[in-house]
Design brief:
26% of the residues lie in helices and 26% in strands. With 472 residues, the chain is α/β, with parallel strands linked by helices. The strands form 4 sheets. A 7-stranded mixed sheet has the order 9-8-7-10-15-17-16. A 6-stranded mixed sheet has the order 2-1-3-6-5-4.
Length: 472
């Protein structure tokens, strides 16, 4: 799909036969994640974005060509990146262009929503500018040429129409007139409410690295999670990624090497709470959201030592591997170390002391996904990178997995993490068992502390610079 950050929406090619145009209003956060999410969800609904579509990727307004309104509604039942979608009736770079576009819109497409027995209302929305109520009313009055036959109902209208104005991306340089205008029939809202209702701040059981709710839902969407899928997280932590997948109807389970986290023991991560309570665990998190029926289990296991039988088992693997900043990268130690057991109540568990190099984590994860995903199943995980070294070529690959998308989230001036989405396209065979990451992809992650050292070296340099500047 062709896309340009600066492409004007008016330059978009006309949709093909049987495809209507829709206006998508997007949230202005997590910009890099929006296009992969929308493409994935459209395909999950049985559609496909036009190959000739051109989008202003940083703009909150996208014009999409979709096969049907059902697909548009299906998209909005899942997306957390988009706010609303509209059937686009007209658009232009000025009011005159907008009015001309509306007058040219086929009357037979309008008629079903303008009948005398139907009520309606018109809403005005401006991006990057605040309009007074008087200005909004003036804009609504200017649309009186539209052939509405029904009555206005502001509380419970049969149809809602939106006039949307785009005043650009620069809050310090807002133009007097909008740079683009749109008018359309509202169809559906996205799932932005999930971000608040599943907020980590309200969650029963959390850890130091519990995933932000919005990102967890984005990961589940990138993974094409759907009802009755089996979704696995090999670094499950407190189960935040399981929650997002279970919300979309998947059966979920995970493993983690940390005995205390899996069993909800030890010191609490929440402020003003010293120890975790007896009912703080992953199952309780699923129960909190009415999702316990989708929870299979979670148990203590070392990701470097797979315990699963051969054969495909998972529809998706969605995970956030540790990379040595807030959580240690660990695996079970030598046989001598494994013989040392630690008493904890009536349970014994393995003492963990061996380093687990980031390169080995990535190699094991890709090999595991290649062997245990179904064909078409997806692996979604976070890859930490040091910005000066990053190119797309250093993303670890496997012959059974195809790279679908890589989306950056900035951590600091010199580090980021990329959300990597891969899809299994080839059956795992014996010769794939010993496939190793290429040296060019292996070196940036090879040392156990490589990313951690680079991360903190940048922090140290920044602090030193700030101290030096403050002394001037």
């Amino acid at each position: 799909m062709r896309a340009s950050p600066d492409q004007e929406p008016g330059a978009m090619a006309r949709p093909g036969a049987g495809r209507a145009r829709y206006l998508l209003l997007l949230a202005q956060e997590n910009l890099a994640f929006r296009l992969p999410e929308i493409k994935t969800l459209v395909s999950l609904c049985g559609g496909q974005l036009s190959s000739q579509q051109e989008l202003r990727l940083n703009s909150p307004f996208w014009i999409l060509s979709l096969p049907s309104e059902d697909i548009a509604k299906g998209l909005m039942k899942r997306t957390v990146c988009a706010k609303s979608i509209f059937e686009l009736w007209g658009h232009g770079k000025s009011t005159d262009e907008l009015y001309s576009s509306l007058k040219n819109y086929p009357l037979e497409n309008m008629a079903p929503y303008l009948q005398s027995n139907l009520t309606y209302k018109i809403k005005v929305h401006a991006f990057n500018k605040t309009l007074t109520q008087e200005e909004k009313i003036q804009r609504i009055d200017s649309l009186e040429f539209l052939p509405f036959e029904g009555k206005v109902n502001l509380k419970k209208p049969d149809n809602i129409f939106w006039l949307l104005e785009d005043y650009g991306m620069d809050p310090n340089n807002i133009p007097e007139h909008p740079i683009y205008l749109y008018f359309g029939r509202w169809i559906a809202n996205g799932q932005r409410d999930l971000i608040e209702s599943y907020s980590v701040k309200k969650r029963h059981f959390i850890g130091n690295t519990s995933m932000d709710a919005c990102l967890a839902f984005i990961m589940a969407n990138h993974g094409r999670v759907k009802p009755n899928d089996v979704v696995f997280d090999p670094f499950v932590g407190t189960g935040g990624l399981l929650i997002a997948s279970a919300h979309f109807g998947a059966y979920v389970f995970g493993t983690d090497i940390d005995y205390s986290t899996v069993h909800g023991l030890g010191k609490a991560s929440r402020k003003n709470q010293k120890w975790r309570g007896p009912d703080e665990n992953i199952r309780a998190n699923l129960r909190q959201y009415g999702l316990e029926k989708h929870y299979l289990d979670a148990f203590v296991s070392d990701a470097s030592r797979p315990i699963w039988r051969k054969g495909a088992q998972f529809d998706a693997i969605i995970t956030d591997p540790p990379y040595g900043i807030r959580e240690a990268t660990r695996r079970t130690g030598s046989q001598k170390e494994m013989a040392k057991m630690t008493e904890r109540g009536t349970e014994n568990h393995i003492s963990i002391s061996s380093n687990y190099h980031l390169s080995d984590i990535l190699f094991d994860l890709l090999k595991f996904a290649a062997e245990h995903l179904v064909i078409g199943g997806r692996l979604v995980y976070w890859l930490p990178i040091y910005k000066p070294e990053y190119t797309e070529e250093i993303i670890p690959r496997h012959p059974c997995l195809k790279l679908i998308s890589n989306c950056e989230q900035t951590l600091s001036s010199h580090t980021s993490r990329y959300l990597i989405t891969m899809e299994k396209v080839k059956e795992f065979e014996d010769e794939d068992h010993d496939v190793h990451i290429l040296e060019s992809q292996y070196l940036p992650y090879k040392s156990h502390n490589s990313f951690r050292d680079k991360y903190f070296s940048g922090v140290t340099k920044r602090i030193a610079k700030e101290e030096k500047d403050s002394q001037k």
